[in-house]
Write a structure and sequence with these properties.
α3 runs antiparallel to α4 (174-225). The radius of gyration is 30 Å and the shape is rod-shaped. The chain starts with a helix and ends with a helix. The chain is mostly helical. It contains four helices and two strands. It has a two-stranded antiparallel sheet with strand order 1-2. The longest helix has 63 residues, at 102-164.
Length: 226
């Protein structure tokens, strides 16, 4: 039984589909390495540290999503406020027309134009907030892929050590299977980063639009105050 225990040292916990994130990773049975000295597990310890770092990055990325969602809520509230102001200005303009108050009509037209410009700024700001939220969500995907790769590399180091110690009967493919698993996880990480980069470009574009709208609005405000 003792020999059989170590002969089955590498146990596959689930089937890993090629290039598919979310599937269970191939994992080394803890029993296969339990009696080995810590000095023999140096590379495993280093890989485990990298895995811990990636996990912390994933938690930070998820916190970034929460913050981005709050920013979207704030921007949406500003849009709603602007809508209310436009409605108020329109009502006052309509009332001025019923009274044939030309001075009030002129004043409220200017106010309404200004409120509409303010709305365009608010809508642009909301667009930025939404793009940042999408980018934040993709950063979570990157962090998850990074953690998965770190996890795969950790299991690879364990598989290498188990193989060196003869703790498996899989003579032809065990370590290579773990290498391929790590390679797939790395490719998934690269794909996730490419997706995040595309969303980062979208954030920058939305930010430029917002800044242009804000500049026009401030210029209009300056004109109105003169």
């Amino acid at each position: 039984m003792h020999t059989l225990r170590f002969a089955l040292g590498l146990i596959l916990l689930g089937v890993l589909a090629a290039g598919c994130q979310g599937q269970a990773l191939h994992r080394v049975d803890d029993a296969a390495l339990a009696d080995l000295a810590l000095e023999e597990k140096t590379q495993i310890a280093l890989a485990d540290s990298e895995r811990a770092r990636a996990l912390e990055s994933m938690h930070l990325a998820k916190a970034g999503v929460d913050a981005a969602r709050r920013d979207v809520s704030v921007a949406e509230a500003e849009v709603h406020r602007r809508q209310a102001e436009i409605g108020k200005a329109q009502a006052e303009l309509d009332y001025a027309f019923t009274r044939h108050d030309q001075a009030k009509i002129t004043s409220m037209r200017q106010t309404l134009d200004l409120e509409r410009e303010g709305m365009r700024v608010a809508e642009s700001n909301l667009a930025v907030a939404r793009e940042r939220l999408a980018f934040s969500e993709h950063r979570v995907e990157v962090a998850q892929a990074d953690h998965r790769w770190a996890d795969a590399k950790y299991e690879l180091e364990r598989a290498k050590l188990a193989a060196r110690k003869g703790r498996t009967t899989f003579k032809d493919m065990p370590v290579r299977a773990f290498e391929e698993q790590s390679e797939r996880a790395h490719r998934d990480l690269i794909d996730a980063r490419l997706g995040a980069n595309r969303h980062e470009d979208a954030v920058e574009k939305a930010q430029r639009t917002y800044e242009e709208q804000e500049k026009l609005y401030k210029e209009h405000l300056g004109t109105e105050s003169q």
